Amino acid sequence: MLTSVSAIRHVPSLPMTNDPTAVEMVGVNKWYGTFHVLKNIDLTIQRGEKLVICGPSGSGKSTMIRCINRLEEHQQGRIVVDGIELTGDLKKINEIRRDVGMVFQHFNLFPHLTVLENLTLAPIWVRKMRRKEAEQVAMHYLDRVKIPDQAHKCPGQLSGGQQQRVAIARSLCMSPKIMLFDEPTSALDPEMVKEVLDTMVSLAEEGMTMLCVSHEMGFARQVADRVVFMDQGEIVEINTPAEFFSSPHHERSKLFLAQILH
Amino acid sequence: MLSDAKTRSIIIQGMLVTAVIAFAALLVSTTFANLKARGIPIGFDFLTMPSRIIISEAILTYKSRDPYFWAIVVGLANTVFISALVIFFSSVLGLVVGITRLSSNPLAAGTCRVWVEIARNSPPIVLLIFLYSLWWKVLPPVGEALNPLPGVYASMRGFVVPAISIDIGMTGALIILFALTLAALGYGLARSGRLPPLVVPAILAAGVVGLWLADIRFAVDFPVFTGSNFRGGSELTPELSTILVGLTIYTTGFVAEIVRGGVLSVGRGQWDAGHSLGLSRGKILRLVVIPQMLRVIVPPLNSQYINVVKNSTLAIAVGYPDFLAVMNTIISKSSHSIEGVFIILGAYLALNLTLSSAANWYNRRIAIVER
């Protein structure tokens, strides 16, 4: 599979439940003031697909995935998530956010709540779940990320790796259809990276649609269907991980790989 | 031996303490000697003597033949009353104004900004005198009193509001106390999860039955205009209204800024996390931001509350008899100025230390656990 940007074909997506497209971005542009952060982004992600997005800092990777759940607003183009187009309509935005989970670089757990309360907050207040039921769901996911014994601690008492796993579990409690990872291992001590990546790998194996901004090459090789390389707000190359890491097509990709692999 | 750090610090501190005690002793003995030489009596005996001073309004009952100590208590009650109301209203308004200042609606944010700037940049006494002068310029005479809300009248003579009276017998009060204790106990046990589920409703039912047995008579007394004045209701004189409204406007400005700082101190990541989970802005504010903000704002808020107590002495500018005003009268009437000043200092110190310790207790209770 050797896809370059121009070769991607866009099939207009219809709001159907069995629509195979999870996310579709067409001609997306975004500016911060006069700074052009995203330039003509075209990207289609199928259900169950795993995408790893990499690129130098400031290339717009985070901004792009933050556009998908409208943490950032795009100014031009079309973003369709799970059959719903993102516009100013708050109701639709909330509908999308309920189904799109996100994991952040700095975890962003709620420090004043216990781990269990962090996990049950959204199910109770957004999904209107009963507390008991929400706690059962939460314990199930804490079990999955292998820290059920920490349920009644506060986030501040956990290690970085544990906190990030709690953050993943918190997103999973909303049973999302798509998961966004924004450099989930960049703020971790090296010895904790593996436990978080293992969690992500097991999630990928279950067929979750995932978009990961990450520079973890091992992870990308293991789970990614495609690697997206971005530079200066553009998608420069989309390739399979095997090809991207061994023989990248674009000069800028080569330069970037040379820098991160030394 | 003198080069030993511990010994040296003990010697230095010992010398300091001795010096301070000696200085204080000198001051006290000189004062006593001077007062004796001029034949001025000193001591707290005067407190039990009838005061014969007039206190124009008080929330406790007071007659001029009551002793001095009762006059002091009445003045203190007035100060506590003003401070408590101002603290309550400025906290509520400050929360609203502070959060609205961060709103994306320019009109709402701008209005709140104007409020904050006016409140923060004008001397409180000017604000009070200005407001006080408005009573006669803006409000109509009592016969044409404004009626903005049912039961609330505003005129030159001040505000008249409905009075609420709750009447319970002694037995009733005891039953309620008992029921409330039971309910609190049950709630606590239920939260810790050590209780079979039916116990809580049972205790609540017991509480309700207790309340019913207690035979509470609850009455709202609406003011009625009788042709020359209002009968019934509670009257808020222009003096009391001015000090309440003025200090509330003033303090709200500061509380709002503290709240705004508090909201901004909660990182953007918390908003991102909340949004990504599908929580609305209002829910993020209520469930995530405000609980974290409270921890940040309690210490500066406590300073503001202490300022309210101290600023309540400005009541003297509009003629409301607060603690300081009453003490002033007592001092000039009884000529026990030194004792009077000590009582004043002691009372404000006690009030403010109480506030501080309450704030510290609250702060410890809600502190975020880290490691």
Automatic annotation (TrEMBL), chain A:
Keywords: ATP-binding, Nucleotide-binding, Transport. SUPFAM superfamilies: P-loop containing nucleoside triphosphate hydrolases. It comes from the Bacteria. SMART domains: AAA (SM00382). One of its GO terms (molecular function) is ATP binding. Pfam families: ABC_tran. Belongs to the ABC transporter superfamily. This is General L-amino acid transport system ATP-binding protein. Residues 23-257 form the ABC transporter domain. InterPro entries: AAA+_ATPase (IPR003593), ABC_ATPase_HisP-typ (IPR030679), ABC_transporter-like_ATP-bd (IPR003439), ABC_transporter-like_CS (IPR017871), MetN_ABC_transporter-like (IPR050086), P-loop_NTPase (IPR027417). PROSITE patterns: ABC_TRANSPORTER_1, ABC_TRANSPORTER_2.
TrEMBL record, chain B:
Keywords: Amino-acid transport, Membrane, Transmembrane, Transmembrane helix, Transport. It is found in: Cell membrane. GO terms for cellular component: plasma membrane. This is Amino acid ABC transporter membrane protein 1 (PAAT family). PANTHER family: AMINO-ACID ABC TRANSPORTER PERMEASE PROTEIN YHDX-RELATED, MEMBRANE COMPONENT OF AMINO ACID ABC TRANSPORTER. Belongs to the binding-protein-dependent transport system permease family. HisMQ subfamily. The keyword Transmembrane applies.
